[in-house]
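So, does this match?
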Amino acid sequence: MTTAADIMHPGAQWIPAGETLDRAAQLMARLNVGALPVSDENERLCGIITDRDIVVSCVAKGHDPSVVTCGDLCQGTPRWIDAGADVSDVLDEMESHQIKRLPVIQDKKLVGMISEADLAQNLSEEQIAGFVEKVYARR
C-alpha cells in the first residue's frame, strides 16, 4: 500500500497565524515553496496561505503585507491527511475539496505536504487524469 508519507514532500514548516504576510513571503522564498500551512498558538493547523493569496487578497487590494497576518487570510476548514493514509484517501480528500496542496500530519505534528507535483511524480496517468478532471472542474 502506498501511503501519504510515501508521496509527500517532507520537511514542511508551519507559519504562525499571527505572522505577517511579508514574513510568509520571505519564508516561501527561502524554502522555495508556494504555500505554507498556518498554525495556531498550539501548533494546530488553522489554514494554508499561498503566494497567490498574498498577491490577490492583500497586495492587489492595496493592503500592507507587513501589517496583514496569515491568520487574516485563512478561511474555511483546513484539510489535512494522516501520514499513514492510503494514496486513494489522499486523492479523495484533494478531489472532493478541489485542493491542490494537502498537509500531512503524524501524531498531531506536521511532517510534510503533498502537492500536484508530488502526485505527478508518484501516481499513474489514470490517477492523475482523474485528479485533474475533478479538481479543475468548475462547480
Remarks:
- The two ends are 32 Å apart (CA to CA).
